Structure formats: C-alpha cells, structure tokens
Amino acid sequence: MSTVELKPSADDSGSGLPEDQRGLGNAVLLLNARWFTGIRWIVVAAFVAVGMAGHLSPDITQQLGFVPPRTWPWILAGILCAANLVFLLMLRHLNPDSPVRATETNLWLQIAVDLVILSVLVHKVGSVDTFVAFAYLFHIALACIFFTRRHSFIVTLLASSLYMACVCLESSRVISSPSILLSSTPFTQSHPIQAMAFAASAVAVWFVVWYLVATLSGAVRTRDQQLAEANARLMKVDEEINRQVLRTAHDLKAPFSGIQSSIHVLRWKHWEDLEDPIRKVIESIQVRSQTLSERISDILLLGDLRSRTNERIVLSPVSLELVINAVVADLKDKAESRNVSIGVSLEPDSVLGEQKQLAILFSNLIANAVLYSHEGGEVNVVAERDGDSMVVSVIDHGIGIKPEAMERIFEEYYRTGEAARFNKLSTGLGLSIVKRVAGNLGITVRVTSEHGEGTRFDVTVPVAVEGV
Q: What is the spatial distance between Cα 178 and Cα 169, in angstroms, rounded to a whole number?
C-alpha cells in the first residue's frame, strides 16, 4: 500500500522582483530584523552571566587572571534589554506590506544601538588589550547582507569611528583605560602610539572584510535579481501560452458540441437506416468527440482555477451535505452506466470553503472513483468530524494505483498505462484540478492506494465556526 499527500503550501507568492535597487525585499528584511532581536536576547543573557560571575565567584575570576566584572555587565544588559523591547514593539506594527523604509529604519536603529553598547563593552574589557574589538565585524557583515554597498560602508565607517574614538580618548587619558586583564597595565596607557597603530590596523582589517563581504553580497544579490527577472519573464510567457491554449480550447468547444448534436440527431432519426459499418464509424466519432469535449471542458476549468490562484478567495460556511449530494446526483447516470453504486454517509456540519470549488473537487474525486471501479462495484463517500476539521473520504475498490505512480498522479495529463486502458475517456486532468482547488482553498488531500484493491482519498476541510 502506498500513500501520497497534498498539503496546503506556505505563502509562495514570493516577492517577485526586488522592490528597488536598495537591497533585500521588505519581507526578507523584516524576517532578518526579527531574527536580529532574537540574537540580542542571547547577548543579554551573556551579560547577565558575566555579571553573576563577578558577584558570586570573584575569587575564581581573579584566579583565572581577570578583574571581576561587577556593575557594568548588569547596566549593559538592562540597556540592551530595554532597547530590544522597543525594537520588538516597533516590529509589531510592521508587516511585509509595510514600506521598506520603515523596516530599514528599525534595522538601522538596532545596529546603531548595538555599536554604541559594543563600544562601551570594548572600553570596559580593553580596547587593544583583547580581541573583543573584532566583534564589530559581526555588524559589518550583517550590514553587507541587509543593506546596499553604500549603506554597509556607512555602518563600517561608524563602527571604525566609535572604536578609534574610544582608543584615542583612552590614549590621551581623557577617559580611563580599564582592562579586564588583571596582570597587566592597559596597553593604551603604557604605549599610546602603538595602541593607536594596533587600533588602526584592526580598522584596516575591518575595511578589507567589508570590501570582500560587500562585493560577494552584491554579486549574490545581483544574481538573485537576474534570476527573479528571468523567472518573471518565463511566467509571463507561460501565462501567454495558457491564454492561447484557453482561447483555442474555447474556440473548439462549439464545433465539438455541434458534432455531438449531429450524432444525436442521426441516432434519433436515421439510426435504423444506417448500415453497421457506418454505425461503428459514427459511434467511434461520438466517443472521440465526447472525450475531446470533456478534455476541453477540463482545460477551461483548470484555466479558470489557475487564474484565481493569486486572487484572495473569500471562504464562507458551506453545507458539505448539500455539495456532495448534488455531486452524487449529477454523477448518477455515469454510475448507473457502469452499474456502480454510490453510498453516502455524512455529518450535517458546515465547512469553511467555497461552494463552487468544493463541488468541483468532490465531483472529480467521486467521478474518478466511479470510472476506475469494476463493473458492479461500490463507491463510498464518508464524512467524519476530527477536531476542528471534517475528513471526507472517497473510497473505491477498483484497480488502485501502483506505488511508483503515486508521486505523479496529480500531474497534468498524467495517466498510467493501466488507467488509460481501463478508462479510455479519461482526460488526465481530473486530479490536476483537485490539486489546484486544494491549493486555492488551503485544504489537505491524502491518497492511500493498493494496486488491484482500490483507492482512498481523504480530504481534510476546516469546520466552519458558528457565527462566521
């Protein structure tokens, strides 16, 4: 037995082409801004841990060769925590449809506050006595990813200016030169010229890193833009092809309807006057015209469903019992022609969906179950409540589906050789239509089948809340 499942896809509308040449699209920027606030909580926790170590185990800290940090980690943790809460509050009012400038402003504020706090940390730990100054590279790299080359250069310039100002003020003894190292005099006091030289070399490394990361990031962003533009062109070509196919299909619908009408007239008025060879030719024409007519109808229906993919579909309470009973009534003649019975067992609950599209989905599933059942078989349609959802099962005991074909059954025009032989009238579009409706309505379709034993389709639809 094999199983395949269609699940509601995430919002894959995509940002399409970049909104402008300034950098990432707003949806990605917003995601990065929120991620940035999450990282900041880790830094706050680290400050708290350092502060606790300074208070609770100063002796151990001194034995390790460090000055026990007592007050400043708590102050920095408090400021960073308060700032992060403000950033989160600002982000609550932003969404992917908000102006890009608003999200960029939030990111700029986050980076600016971080650089100021980082400068205080560098001053407290030791501006040139330790390697903590290279933490500036974290924000420089992120700026290269978030922003354009010019804006990331500004961030690099700001970080460098803050760091050099700190070292300069310490070397000129305008401010004190604390160090977290216990056994040495701060380097900025003993060798001020060398301290400035070391700081300048560090800044030079930062600009080299900025240049490399900004260049790579710009190349990747340009490539992404080119791919997005190429994808947009392909989508336009595909849409034009679909329009031509639909136009041609619509033009062919009338002639085939005319052929079928003429055949009906022949069978009604002149059938007895025709010889057997002519009757066989007419019957063959009737079968083929009916098959092509059904395929044209499915193509037009699929085209209509595709055109609604990007529309905002308004879901409303729909009587599942009414929809399925109407579908079963429409398929009555088809079922009787194959001597297949359809059993229905439903709960009188309403589901959230769109009546027309739900009818299309269940019509295709139940029709498939009838067409691929054996003569004299039975199809069961069962609906049962499962929490906040209704699971509608369409079960047949027909030819089933081979395991190797399960992954492809929702492809357009795909039919297994066995299915084509069993049902020559199949258009190969029925399950493609089911997939399109499921995607439009955001519902799940699960298929379980055993070759030679039958197939079961489980459709999970949310139950409509009372009062909606």
A: 12
